[in-house]
Specification:
The protein is an alpha/beta fold. It has two domains: about 110 residues, HAD superfamily/HAD-like (Rossmann fold, 3-Layer(aba) Sandwich), CATH 3.40.50; about 110 residues, Rossmann fold (3-Layer(aba) Sandwich), CATH 3.40.50.1000. It has nine helices and 15 strands. The protein has a six-stranded parallel β-sheet with strand order 5-4-1-13-14-15. Strands 7-6-8-9-12 form a five-stranded parallel β-sheet, with helices on both faces. Helix 5 links the parallel strand 8 and strand 9. Helix 3 runs parallel beside helix 4 and helix 5 crosses helix 6. The longest helix is centred in the first third of the chain and has 12 residues. It is globular and about 60 Å long. About 50% of the residues are buried.
């Protein structure tokens, strides 16, 4: 595995679930990591596949945990999905299963809500997901609506284990309707490119930190960005054996980045 000179890197793209927190619990070393980013004047972006929250909600979520991170440092799969639909079909109509983060992002780009004959069925994580809404979504797709998933995460870490995530929630609709969804979040290169553009740094000057090989690490690898797998979330050292590619570095958590940078 290649070593990374963290002091030389200008931009840090960081996953949230399993990297910054589990549920409502901040992970060790996170406060020191954020302080180091600010002190060293590093550009940083929290790039999360969780589509449930708006950037403002994420800001307040971290504030409740004692972390002060301005709103503009967040980019979500909900924003990536909205950006994709704005580019593909400006002013389109959508049937959405998801939380405020997803619906708000879609409203912001001019999408209208439509549960009769929408152009798209858009699925994210959310409590509105049940057999009735699943059945409705399936039949709207059968009538011609295109199926979009906010992200392709199968599961995500929570305080007491894991929870089914967007990919798992979309799967029944794909199976019942006989179609394949298009996913807008990581590892879709569109989201990574948007993140780098928002950061204002080139790929070779950036590093992505995440707990998932199949979204975070592959996103960085395919975008020419240095990659750090942290073992504070869903992955273990055994996880690496399942993939034909590896990260640039494996660390226990983001606090190790500060320690390594200060050893230089």
């Amino acid at each position: 595995m290649a070593k990374i000179d963290f002091n030389a890197k200008k931009g840090f793209i960081c996953d949230m679930d399993g990297v910054i927190y589990h549920g409502n619990k901040v992970l060790p070393g996170v406060a020191e990591f954020i302080e180091w980013l600010s002190a060293e004047k590093k550009d940083y972006l929290f790039l999360t596949n969780n589509s449930s929250y708006t950037p403002l909600e994420l800001q307040y979520k971290l504030k409740r945990m004692g972390l002060d991170v301005p709103e503009h440092h967040f980019y979500t799969s909900a924003l990536a999905t909205a950006s994709f639909l704005k580019e593909q079909a400006p002013g389109c109509s959508v049937y959405v299963l998801g939380e405020a983060g997803l619906t708000h992002a879609l409203y912001e780009v001019g999408c209208t809500m439509n549960d009769i004959n929408p152009d798209y069925v858009v699925i994210g994580e959310g409590r509105t997901y049940n057999l009735d809404t699943l059945t409705k979504a399936t039949n709207l797709v059968l009538k011609g609506a295109k199926l979009i998933g906010a992200n392709s995460d199968i599961s995500g870490p929570i305080e007491n284990g894991i929870a089914p995530a967007c990919r798992a929630l979309v799967a029944p609709i794909e199976m019942a309707a006989g179609v394949e969804a298009y996913f807008c979040g990581k590892p879709n290169p569109l989201m990574m490119r948007s993140g780098l553009k928002k950061l204002g740094v080139h790929s070779e000057d950036a590093v992505i930190i995440g707990d998932r090989m199949d979204t975070d690490i592959i996103s960085g690898l395919e975008s020419g960005v240095s990659t750090v797998l942290v073992l504070s979330g869903i992955s273990t050292m055994d996880t690496l054996k399942s993939y034909g590619y590896g990260p640039s570095m494996v660390l226990d958590g983001v606090g190790d980045i500060v320690r390594i940078a200060k050893e230089k």
